[in-house]
Amino acid sequence: MTPWLDPAQQRSWRALVEGAGQLLARVDRHLRDAHGLTLAEYEILVRLSEGHLHMSELADQVSHSRARVTQTVDRLVRADLVRRSPCPEDRRGVHAALTDRGRAVLDTAARDHVLEVRRLVIDVLDPDELTALGSAMAKIRDATQD
Amino acid sequence: MTPWLDPAQQRSWRALVEGAGQLLARVDRHLRDAHGLTLAEYEILVRLSEGHLHMSELADQVSHSRARVTQTVDRLVRADLVRRSPCPEDRRGVHAALTDRGRAVLDTAARDHVLEVRRLVIDVLDPDELTALGSAMAKIRDATQD
DNA sequence: ACGAGGTAGTTAAACCGTTAACCATCTCGG
DNA sequence: CCGAGATGGTTAACGGTTTAACTACCTCGT
To answer: Are A19 and B140 in contact, with CB atoms under 8 Å apart?
Structure first.
């Protein structure tokens, strides 16, 4: 029976939604404009940079639907950044791995992406604010996992 | 020439992107499933709950493109939640205002939405964590405004 | 060893958002 | 007072995401 947030909670919540939305939008736009990559595509490339993965491992790691991963990888394959190959020991499975071009594009995109992250996040907070933010967001992320 | 983030910054940044993404996704899904509203539609309704607004004021307040607002409002008008009317003193302008049904739907959606926000955010943080999160996200939001 | 049910992945359609082009109206300097 | 440019708003085409249905393959109990 106490439905509403108090004013301070309101302000925090609004800052959170608006900040989260705009941050993701800016990062996505920067990757598109500067490197022709969606944030979703970029995240897939990052996961693949540690080695080849099954489609569904990929889907779990980035928490996207399998359908979405299929189509994101389709685009990456068309762009010659990722290679698909059938998995030997499970004939349903499909490996995805970076191509050389994929690794090269990711390397330059990643360097630039980090600069943007600094600009938008790291540089506007002092270090303990950043850690506090990180631990709060980790709790929220985990609370949305179930 | 120090391109990378240190491990702690990395963790904070990953918690931030992942948490932000999943939080927005969950809130959007909850509104859709429980009330047939997109988060974008919901935010428009919230702005209109204080009184009628011009399309472009609406666009500024929710920071969406005018085109997007036009189409979001289209859907809301089709659903009979919002009413459009030509603005008397500027014949280019268009007022948007809640219908009675719009106000009713917003009222019940808002109550329920707040419960979800508590579940996902307020209840998983202690109060000073929440204020710290809020002020950090406010800085990030403002840093993405330019 | 076989069939039921689970898992891996893809496909097609509908939906939402972005982009760019567009028309109508307003504003303001010359 | 008039025409250039700015502003308000819509439209259409396109791109990415979700959803649901579908195929192929694997697993495990019987």
So the answer is: yes
